[in-house]
Write a structure and sequence with these properties.
Layout lengths: L3 E7 L5 H11 L4 E7 L4 H11 L10 H9 L9 E5 L5 H10 L3 E4 L7 H14 L3 E3 L7 H11 L6 E9 L12 H6 L2 H4 L4 H17 L3 E9 L9 E8 L4 E7 L8 E8 L2 E6 L5 E6 L5 E4 L3 H5 L14 H20 L12 H18 L6 E2 L14
Parallel strand pairs: 1-2, 1-3, 3-4, 4-5, 6-9
Antiparallel strand pairs: 6-10, 7-8, 7-14, 8-9, 10-11, 11-12, 12-13
Helix pairs in contact: 1-11, 4-5, 5-12, 6-9, 9-12
Length: about 400
């Protein structure tokens, strides 16, 4: 297909996630980065544009200027979607203005600063008729898709218990709070009401809901902040799913020695599964009445369960490839939208996941400061459709 044209807001020099987005977008050769507003500092934005080989005329001083100028270009030249890779507090306004200007949006998570903004964004998105996707990266792993299919097809039976944990140690040293990545995540003005739960806990919640094809209906939470920090860096959440399963979510950024330890176990009546992001090509399937199995990515069994891989068995694919799977799916949707035939059945996280993520974060923060044991997670499913088409 003709390459889909992308713009980017954020992701300037020394930005971590912006570089990851660009690598993911480039991997399958379906996307071309044609413009950007990479930094609030025009000099840094121009520096990034030069490094990326982008026409200096299409490096903009602000995202507002970019949307205005790009909208005036011929349809076959202007960007078709924008990737938003800024701190959380900018997500809503950038996405809102992009949608209103007629551009599709792919945004880093969480979608907004709070649930109110997410609800407003859902309304803007619906009225715009544009596509919206959210980069919950871990749903792009082949064996995560396989795990979901095992649950959906009934091979585990009724789900009884879910245990998901996401442990990191990069914020364990309290003296490092002034670093660029830590500073904005620990600042309520830029991160919102949560650090740990908004940064990684919401990934764990999304992974559990995705694999189980179910949603968290109620929760009880205990989150905490180390030292003089204003926002949480550790927490535990007890879960009740709408389908009846019980669960536990643990998220920490002060777990000394941990790197990016995301792990999920789903226990059903007939079988259980176990997947870890640090060993992503393997999915352990445990049966009650026969030997355990280890399913491997790119094998015929995994392929039959819907896993998307680029290399033969034994050639590990990881974080960048999972990220690229989301970009690849979104590029295909944008291409289909050119012909007025978007794919409405995609598993790509969209506005519904954006709403559910913000509802989860806010409910966790509220529950942790309350003496009440259980708190209902707001039902936001009636406000949108599913996936990247939502």
């Amino acid at each position: 297909m003709q390459k889909v044209r992308m713009g980017m807001v954020g992701g300037g020099p020394d930005a971590f996630i912006g570089a990851v987005h660009r690598m993911a977008a480039n991997l399958d050769g379906k996307i071309q980065l044609v413009c950007g507003a990479f930094s609030r500092d025009p000099a840094k934005s121009q520096q990034m544009s030069s490094q990326l080989g982008i026409d200096a005329q299409r490096c903009y001083a602000s995202y507002q200027a970019m949307f205005d100028a790009e909208a005036r270009l011929p349809a076959d030249e202007r960007m078709e979607f924008v990737a938003i890779v800024t701190p959380n507090h900018l997500h809503f306004d950038v996405a809102r203005q992009a949608l209103q200007a007629g551009f599709h949006v792919l945004c880093d998570k969480p979608a907004t600063l709070n649930l109110t903004e997410a609800q407003l964004l859902a309304d803007v998105k619906q009225r715009s008729g544009r596509l919206y996707a959210l980069t919950h990266t871990y749903t792009g792993y082949p064996m995560v898709v396989a795990a979901r299919q095992l649950v959906v097809s009934g091979q585990l039976g009724k789900i009884r218990k879910v245990a998901v944990e996401y442990h990191q140690g990069w914020l364990a040293d309290l003296s490092g709070d002034s670093g660029k990545q830590a500073a904005w995540r620990l600042d309520p003005a830029q991160a919102g009401s949560s650090c740990c739960m908004a940064d990684i806990g919401v990934h764990a919640a999304n992974l559990a809901e995705f694999i189980c094809d179910d949603h968290i209906a109620e929760l009880s939470a205990d989150i905490s902040a180390s030292g003089n920090r204003q926002l949480d860096d550790d927490g535990v959440v007890m879960l009740r799913f709408a389908g009846g399963a019980r669960g536990m979510l643990s998220a920490s950024q002060i777990a000394v020695g941990e790197e990016n330890n995301l792990r999920i176990r789903v226990y059903g009546e007939k079988a259980s599964l176990d997947w870890s992001q640090e060993s992503p090509n393997s999915l352990k399937l445990m049966h009650a009445d026969k030997p355990f199995e280890t399913l491997r990515a790119a094998t015929p069994t995994a392929a039959a369960l819907g896993g998307i891989t680029r290399t033969p068995p034994g050639h590990p694919e990881g974080y960048l490839e999972a990220f690229a799977n989301l970009y690849c799916q979104f590029a295909e949707q944008v291409s289909q939208a050119r012909q007025q035939h978007p794919d409405i059945h995609s598993l790509l996280p969209g506005i519904n996941e954006a709403l559910r993520g913000m509802a989860f974060i806010e409910t966790v923060v509220t529950a942790s400061s309350s003496q009440q044991k259980w708190h209902k997670v707001p039902d936001v499913s009636n406000l949108s459709g599913q996936g990247g088409q939502a």
